[in-house]
Amino acid sequence: MTATSAFFERLTVAGRDPRFSKVCGSVRFDIRDGDHLEQWLLVIDHGQMRVTRSADPATTVIKVSAPLAEGMARGEVNGLAAITRGEILVDGDLGLALRIGRLFPREPGPLQRDEATATGDR
Predict the structure, then answer these.
(1) pLDDT-based confidence at 3, cuts 50/70/90?
(2) Which candidate among 24, 25, 35, 92 keeps its CA 20 to 30 Å from the CA of 43?
(3) Are 111 and 121 in contact (CB under 8 A)?
(4) CA distances (Å), 87 to each of 27, 80, 119, in order?
C-alpha cells in the first residue's frame, strides 16, 4: 500500500473531522504517474467525510504527480508551498483546497513496519 492510499484509507476509517463541521463540498484528487491516472473523491458534508475512487465531478480538482502526492501523504511536502511553486494545480474552490491541507500530516512520521522493510531501513 502506498502512503497516498494509506492517507485516503485513514480518512475513510475516520469518517468525520470536527475541524470541517462548517464545510460542504467535494475535492477530487487527480494523481498522475506517467500514463496512469488515479482519482480519489473526497466528499465533505458538515465534517462527515466520504472517500471513494471516482472520476465524478467535484467542487475542487487537485492535480498532482504521484511522487508529490506520496510526499504530502508522508508529511514531507507542504501543499501550500507546492501550489505556490506550480507543482499542484487547483481547479475550482482554492479556499477548499487550502482547507484540505489540514488533513495531511505536517511533518514526516515514523516509517510503517512494511515501508521500513521495503526500503531496507531498520
Answers:
(1) very high
(2) 35
(3) yes
(4) 17, 10, 26
